[in-house]
Amino acid sequence: MSHFNYIDLFGFLAALLTTIAFLPQLYKTWKTKSADDVSLIMLILFITGLICWIIYGLKIHSIPILIANIFTFLFNFSILILKVTYKENKE
Asked: Of residues 46 and 4, which shows the higher confidence score?
């Protein structure tokens, strides 16, 4: 088993903070049934970047990078799905 590196604490803290930062937006989108204020292009670019981070995290075997980006991907993909769903319901 590998020795725990204390610098990983900063990685886990960064993972926690950057991941939970999207929870208020996800909650607001779900609660108001609207994502009009969220840019579709931004979501697509951000999700693409998260996929790249996940691949990078896998390649360098970084648990903090993987955890942060997998959860952030799930939250943002959920926002994207809600945005598309609510837009279709308006039409």
From this structure: 46
Tell me which of 1.20.1280.290, 3.40.50.12280, 2.60.40.10, 3.30.420.270 is the CATH number of domain 25-90: 1.20.1280.290
**Predicted confidence band at 10 (pLDDT cuts at 50, 70, 90)?**
confident
CA angle 16, 75, 11 (to 5 degrees): 20
Q: How far is CA 59 from CA 56, 62, 65, 66, 80, in A?
A: 5, 8, 11, 10, 27
pTM: 0.81
CA distance 48 to 44: 6
